[in-house]
Specification:
alpha+beta; 9-stranded mixed sheet; 8 helices; 18 strands
Length: 338
C-alpha cells in the first residue's frame, strides 16, 4: 500500500481523545545485542474508531500497524486481531541522547545514567519538505511556544484557501502544542514539538519538524536538557547478529519520493554493510529476500536451519533476565490499560 494513500485512509477522520499513554520503555539489551521488546496483539473493539485510536493504546504509529498487518483495513472490524509491532532492533548508532529513524517514524531516547531506552512515535516532513538527516543538538527548550509560520507555509496555506496569521499565540490551538525542542540545524526552523492534531503523529504531514503527541512531548521535554545530542537517520532496513548467533532483519517501507510511489514495491538501496550481513555465515538468503519483500516493520529471524538447530532458544532469549522481563511485562500491561 502506498504511504501517500494514507491521507485518504480516514486516519484523520474520527478524532479520538488523546490517551494519557506512556512511552514504551525497555531495558537496554546486553552488549552485542540490539533486540528489544516483544510483539503484542489487540482485538479490535467497537469503540476503536480507526488505526490511530488503536495506535494510541500502545503509543505507536498507525503506519507501523499497517506494515505489520499488511492487508488490514484503516477502520478494522470489531473482533479483528491486530499485531502490534512492539519488538524492534535498536538503530545502529551510539546509544546517546535522541535518535530518530525517519523510515520507521520512531524517536528513541536514551536517558543518561539509566540502562533503558524510551520509544515514541513521531510525525515527520512530507515529500519535498523532508526532515533532514543530520547529527545535531537540542539548542533550546521552549515551553508554551508561539508559532511563526514561514513565508512558504503561509503561501501553501493561502493556496488552499487558508490565510494564516503572522504569529499564532501559545495555547490549545497552537500547532506546536505546549512544548518544543529547537534543533541546531538550519536557521532554527526544525523542532521536535507537540501538536494540536493528534492523528497527524505517525504520518508525513509536517514541513520538516517532528511531531509528538501531547503526553509524549511533555515527558520528553521534562527529561531532555539543552545540548542533548540528536541523531536523525533514514534507514528502512535494520539488521543484527545477536549474541546467541541468531540473525534478524527489520524492514520498513522506505519513505516515498513522490505521492504516487508505491513503497511496498520500490527497490530498497542496500548498504555495503547490509550486503555483508546477507552473505554472512548463518544467514538464510531466501529468508532475507522474503523479509525484504514483505517489509513487515518488525524483526524477523533469518538464520539458516543449521544455525537455528544450534540455537533453539526463544527469539527473546537475549532478554531473559528477570529485570528485563519484568519491565517489558509492565510496559505491555500499561499500554493495554491506557
Amino acid at each position: 500500500m502506498k504511504r501517500a494513500s494514507l491521507l485518504s485512509l480516514c486516519l484523520f477522520g474520527a478524532f479520538s481523545a488523546i490517551q494519557l499513554a506512556h512511552a514504551a520503555e525497555y531495558v537496554l539489551p546486553p552488549d552485542g545485542s540490539r533486540l528489544i521488546g516483544e510483539n503484542q496483539t489487540w482485538t479490535v473493539r467497537a469503540e476503536d474508531k480507526n488505526l490511530q485510536a488503536i495506535a494510541r493504546h500502545f503509543d505507536t504509529a498507525a503506519m507501523l500497524i499497517l506494515e505489520a498487518n499488511d492487508t488490514i483495513a484503516p477502520v478494522p472490524r470489531p473482533g479483528t486481531v491486530v499485531t502490534i509491532p512492539s519488538q524492534m532492533l535498536l538503530p545502529d548508532t551510539p546509544r546517546e541522547g535522541i535518535v530518530v529513524n525517519l523510515a520507521e517514524l520512531r524517536l528513541y531516547y536514551f536517558p543518561p545514567g539509566k540502562n533503558s531506552v524510551q520509544v515514541y512515535p513521531i510525525g515527520i516532513g512530507q515529500q519535498g519538505l523532508e526532515t533532514p538527516v543530520s547529527v545535531t543538538r537540542v539548542s533550546q527548550k521552549i515551553p508554551n511556544p508561539t508559532w511563526t509560520p514561514t513565508v512558504g507555509i503561509r503561501a501553501r496555506s493561502l493556496a488552499n484557501g487558508i490565510e494564516l496569521p503572522p504569529v499564532v499565540p501559545a495555547g490549545p490551538h497552537n500547532p506546536l502544542g505546549r512544548f518544543a525542542l529547537r534543533l541546531g540545524i538550519g536557521h532554527g526552523e526544525y523542532l521536535i514539538h507537540g501538536t494540536n492534531a493528534p492523528d497527524s503523529v505517525g504520518l508525513r504531514v509536517s514541513s520538516g519538524c517532528m511531531r509528538m503527541s501531547a503526553p509524549d512531548i511533555q515527558a520528553l521535554f521534562a527529561q531532555v536538557s539543552a545540548g542533548t545530542r540528536v541523531t536523525i537517520i533514514n534507514e528502512p532496513v535494520k539488521y543484527a547478529v545477536e549474541p546467541d548467533g541468531r540473525h534478524y532483519i527489520e524492514v520498513h517501507r522506505p519513505l516515498s519520493q513522490t505521492v504516487e510511489e508505491d513503497t511496498q514495491r520500490v527497490p530498497i538501496q542496500l548498504s555495503p554493510a547490509m550486503a555483508t550481513f546477507i552473505n554472512q555465515s548463518g544467514g538464510d538468503k531466501k529468508l532475507i529476500e522474503k523479509a525484504l519483500n514483505r517489509r513487515a516493520g518488525y524483526p524477523v529471524a533469518v538464520a539458516s536451519r543449521k544455525s537455528a538447530a544450534v540455537n533453539p532458544e526463544s527469539v527473546l532469549s537475549v532478554q531473559n533476565s528477570a529485570e528485563a522481563a519484568a519491565m517489558n511485562a509492565e510496559t505491555g500491561q500499561r499500554a493495554i490499560t491506557q
